[in-house]
Amino acid sequence: MKQRILVAVIGAPALIAVLAAAPEWATFVLLWLLSLIGAHELLAAVCGNQKAARWTGLAGALAAFTLVTVYWSDEDFAGSALSALGEFFLAAMLVLLFVTAIVEYGGRHPMTFRDICAILVSGVAIPLSFGCLLLLRLMPDGGGLVLIPLVAAFCSDSAALFTGMACGRHKLAPHVSPKKTVEGAIGGLVGGMLGMVIFRVIFYFCTVRALHIGWCIVLGLLGAIMGQLGDLSFSLIKREFGIKDYGRLLPGHGGVLDRFDSVLFAAPVVWLVICHVPL
């Protein structure tokens, strides 16, 4: 537990600094690195270390062009040649993936359907979720808005952990994550909403822009719900393939997918709400 808290104390400010205060290109690079590491972790879990070493480069290239397409889809680039170019390269990488599968079929290290699915999830789906953080960063006051999925998800994770330890009795999904309890899940929902209420105050002092408290509570609740769903979903993959953690990059937390699984599910929903509901 001490190691887990120490990593959080050091890592959280660094993460916030890059996401919220650094130039947009630094946010892009950070999200691509997280996508690349997450791709390797998922491929290693699903396909094995040998195939992960072989195909992480392809998944990483897919992730890069996916994030480029997301970045160039911003209104500053909408309709421009750059926007079309990003989509072209992403499509070309997808074609290359299936051409590679056909060429490798029957060889010593064929790319199976499972491998293709794992590459698509790690090279497209995960970067698209991280890309929602990038889109939030590009909005007005984006340095604050980009933190909303993290606040909702991480506050929910912490509240669920401590509530479960204190009074957890009823198992939530024992075959997927034996330690998670219904009481912990409820505490996590409360933690997500409370975290967003506190964030609203900090956001106001930093931007002099008052977010509607009702929508902050809604965002906290939705972020917490989706965060818990993301946690359980990635735990399901771990159980199916018999691993404890996706990696050991973050001592006490596991790998990138162990730490950001909840954010990957929370970010798209938060982005959709912020885009379509006035705050």
Task: Explain the overall architecture.
The chain is mainly α. The chain folds into two domains: 120 residues, no CATH class; 133 residues, no CATH class. 77% of the residues lie in helices and 3% in strands. It is built from ten helices and two strands; from the N terminus they run H-H-H-H-H-H-H-E-E-H-H-H. It has a two-stranded antiparallel sheet. Helix 7 crosses helix 10. The longest helix is centred in the last third of the chain and has 29 residues. The radius of gyration is 19 Å and the shape is globular. The mean pLDDT is 88.
Gyration radius over CA: 19 Å
The overall pLDDT, averaged over residues, is 88
Number of domains: 2
Could you give the distance between the termini? 37 Å
Category by helix and strand content: mainly alpha
Q: How much strand?
A: under 5%
Q: What shape does the CA trace take?
A: globular
Low-confidence runs of at least 5 consecutive residues: none
How many DSSP-defined strands?
Answer: 2
The spatial strand order of the largest sheet comes to 1-2
Number of helical regions:
10
Order of helices and strands: HHHHHHHEEHHH
Helical content class: over 70%
The major pleated sheet works out as:
2 strands, antiparallel
